[in-house]
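#lab-general

N.A. 3:47 PM
ok so I finally got the sequence cleaned up, no stray characters, all 271 residues accounted for. can someone with queue access submit it? mine expired

B.Y. 3:52 PM
send it over

N.A. 3:53 PM
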Amino acid sequence: MKKRLLAAVFLLVLLVSSMPMIVLADENDIVYVTPYGEKYHTYNCPTIARSHKIPMTIAEARRAHGACHVCTPDSYSAPSPVSSNTGITPEQAAQNAYALYVQNGLDSNTAFARVQAIVPQLAANPGGYADIVANDLAALQAAVPAAPVTAPVQAGMTPEQAVQSAYALYVQNGLDSNTAFARVQAIVPQLAANPAAFAQIVQNDLAGSAAVPAAPAAAAPNPANPQASSAAEALVQQMYAALIAQGYTSDQALAAINANLPAILQQAQGM
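B.Y. 4:20 PM
back already:
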């Protein structure tokens, strides 16, 4: 099977190497028009052999003329480049290229497909097969997308645990209870979608917050009583756990806690 594939590649190389190269004309290349003609031509076009030829660039000619369909001045045939290594044929270049692809870890089918893709280059420059293969492999490697960076995974974490852990992280970063719960509410959809990434979600939220809203004065814990803040956090966590145990979703539990937050804070201040 491998021999048949290589034979097909060699036949393709022979066909390509025997064909003239079609070179696209540059806009600065010179073409010719006639005083009353509507087309632009190459100098040797038989349709203007007896006409007065007016030279101009292709860019200028295209403004008022179309391309001749006989001489096709927008492209022309050019001889195939001579190999820089006269000691190697296009067939040998295809064989060597195939071997290089296999040495670089490609399977037979993929190596054959890559040789097919570079046949025109091998036919034009058999002696440069090694560089051609190296450039093709580099292009393939560059085209492979990088794996996305993900947050560290914590196996077995539930959305409810992620909400509790996120709240604790906000508090550790200096947010009061009211603000911490407001931030947790804002990221609940992300926590539900990826509980294990709660730490990264909180960090991104903290980094993206231009300003942390201050808690209402009536609901703020008593700064003279540091135990009040800790007591409020404990009460909130207990209430949240109790609501979850009763079948509340994270959103419902947070909404219920937020609605009762002033009373919770007032109770904590009296402890």
